[in-house]
Each structure stands twice: as C-alpha cells, then as structure tokens.
Amino acid sequence: QGNMAFAGKYEFEGDENYDDFVNKIGLPSDKIEMGRNCKIVTEVVQNGNDFTWTQHFPGGRTTTNTFTIGKEADMETMGGKKFKATVKMEDGKIVADFPNYHHTAEICGGKLVEVSSQISRLVYKEKTKKTN
C-alpha cells in the first residue's frame, strides 16, 4: 500500500466538466457559482495515515475533513452535507465515496489532482404483466 506525501497547500488551477458534474450531483446554484473558477486553496496536513483536509474558499469560508485511512470518519461535502465515509489508499491515491460521487486525490508532478465522478444511479420500474 503506497503512502504518498500529500502534505502541503495547493491553489486551484483549473477544472474540467465542472458544470456538468455539480448539476448531476444536485449542488445548489449558489454553491455552483461560489465554486466556479474560484481560487480555492486546499491545505493538507498528513501525519502517517491521519489527515486533516481543509478547503479555504474566498470570503473566509472553510470546509475541513479529518480522517484516518481505513477508518470510518464524519465528513462534510463542499455543499455542507454531512455523511460518514471510510477513506482508503489505493495505488497511492486517496479514495472516498461521497453521498453522490466517488472521489480520488493524488499527487502528480507536485500538483494535487482531485477527480470526482458521479456514482451511477439506475432506476427500474416494474414491468407490466401481459394478460392474455
């Protein structure tokens, strides 16, 4: 199990497919606007498998998640929704399932790269029975 050094302060550099993603996970429009191209600074404090992960938003708002790899922790989304998750380390990436999406974070070329992908949601209705 890899244990990459994540500690540091990282300033937002760019995003891909932001609007599509935040709409799919149901983020309120005020939070979407707040997050769009804003200079979020992510600060990571790491002590072995213990992490404090803080996002500093313009205007002084912060979101902090404290977790230990492999143990369930109380977490909060950037939209303020509280939930429980067990954060894992897979191939040097931090991996967590948020309520509506799967999230990974890794260090690539000295940059913090976070990828959030929507968890597929399939809905089936009961098939009507044919009566002959």
Automatic annotation (TrEMBL):
It is found in: Cytoplasm. The keyword Metal-binding does not apply. InterPro entries: Calycin (IPR012674), Fatty_acid-bd (IPR000463), ILBP (IPR031259). The keyword Secreted does not apply. It comes from the Eukaryota. This is Gastrotropin. One of its GO terms (molecular function) is lipid binding.
